[in-house]
């Protein structure tokens, strides 16, 4: 069984079943994933991805691996930013529905088919909560990124203020599941 480096994500099974359940879920929603993402984030995800790519600050033409690439939105931002992108995802459905010219590879991000120090950078967008072991993910990321490379991990969090946190909880626990 895989380890989890923290409490289980709400609504997801224990670590021994998590990978199978997550893969199945993304395979099922892959044809509408991009639309749901835009609606759930009120379109803000586009700017968040652009900012994550901007934060890499790598030389032009750098090779960047996008982990849990889904349908390729972050790969597209990487290419638009002047980078060479390669996406990795373990959901066949997401890759089948990919809308990117960047190469995509069906692979577990905890066991990437890359040599040590092979890439200049790594991105990962909105997927940390779906990984069975964050420590393994960080170790694998460190393994494949060259010395001096850069990593940009994009994830959502709850706001600090009590009123904003209550609105966030209402939206993400009640409304977003209906949208999904």
Rounded mean pLDDT is: 80
State Rg. Answer: 16 Å
Count of separate DSSP helical elements: 7
Shape field: globular
Sheet/helix structural class: alpha/beta
The largest sheet, given as strand count, sense and whether it forms a barrel, is: 5 strands, parallel
- Which runs of at least 5 residues are low in confidence (pLDDT < 50)? 1-8
Percent of residues in helices comes to 40-55%
> What is the spatial order of strands in the main beta sheet?
3-2-1-4-5
Which series of helices and strands comes N to C? Answer: HHHEHEHEEHEH
Proportion of residues in extended strands:
15-25%
End-to-end distance, in Å?
A: 29 Å
Q: How many E strands? A: 5
Features:
180 residues, alpha/beta, five-stranded parallel β-sheet, 7 helices, 43% helix, 17% strand
Can you describe this structure?
The chain is of the alpha/beta class. It has helices at 15-29, 33-40, 44-56, 73-80, 92-96, 134-144, 162-179; strands at residues 63-67, 84-89, 104-106, 119-125, 145-154. Helix 3 crosses helix 4 (73-80).
In short:
With 180 residues, the protein is α/β, with parallel strands linked by helices.
Please write out the topology:
Elements: H1 15-29, H2 33-40, H3 44-56, E1 63-67, H4 73-80, E2 84-89, H5 92-96, E3 104-106, E4 119-125, H6 134-144, E5 145-154, H7 162-179
Parallel strand pairs: 1-2, 1-4, 2-3, 4-5
Helix pairs in contact: 3-4
């Amino acid at each position: 069984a895989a380890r989890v480096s923290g409490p289980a994500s709400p609504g997801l099974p224990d670590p021994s079943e998590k990978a199978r359940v997550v893969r199945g879920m993304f395979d099922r929603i892959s044809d509408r994933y991009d639309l749901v993402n835009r609606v759930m984030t009120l379109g803000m995800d586009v700017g968040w991805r652009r900012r994550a790519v901007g934060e890499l600050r790598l030389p032009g033409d750098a090779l960047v691996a996008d982990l849990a690439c889904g349908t390729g939105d972050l790969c597209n931002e990487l290419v638009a930013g002047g980078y060479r992108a390669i996406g990795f995802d373990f959901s066949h459905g997401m890759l089948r529905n990919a809308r990117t010219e960047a190469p995509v590879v069906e692979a577990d991000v905890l066991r990437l088919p890359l040599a040590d120090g092979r890439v200049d950078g790594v991105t990962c967008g909105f997927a940390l909560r779906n990984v069975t072991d964050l420590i393994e993910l960080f170790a694998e990321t460190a393994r494949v990124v060259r010395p001096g490379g850069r990593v940009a991990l994009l994830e959502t969090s709850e706001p600090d203020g009590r009123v904003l946190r209550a609105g966030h909880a209402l939206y993400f626990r009640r409304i977003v599941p209906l949208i999904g």
